[in-house]
Predict the 3D structure of the following.
Amino acid sequence: MKQRTRPKLRLLALNLALALLVSLALPVTAGAAAQRISLGYGNQNMSGTGWTYYASDRSLVLDNYQGGAITVTGDLNIYSYGDVDVAGQGRGHGISAGSGDVYVYVQNGTLDVTAQQDACGIYAGGSAATVAIVPLNGTATIEAGPTGAGIYSNGIVLLMSPPKGWTSGDT
């Protein structure tokens, strides 16, 4: 005798199987899209997809980096090449240097730094911190969340352009 299965039970089993497959795939895709650069105290060389950090001169080289926030305690020099997008999530700043200065050099291409909510595009929290943006052969766009600041510093903010007659070969 052939046993019949109910269509409702088959549909329920199929939906549960699909829900399980989707829930297994979500953490993998969400983690890949939210790459962050966390340099800690900046005392060791590190690298990842689209970035390399050199502890000796506290330099972070971004080469077509498309990812999440950048955080460090202390000073940070950023050299941007190609099309770079840095996106802070939630209340996190796009680029954050606690107790230090931030110098950003856009060597070529574009640098876009964005933040959400009440966060800043670039935040330097040292007691007399400096933030300097120098677009050598490219453009920089720094955006804050709706109630944040594009650039926040406890000290000086410098928006600079290259000296007259300067070319990319002059280093």
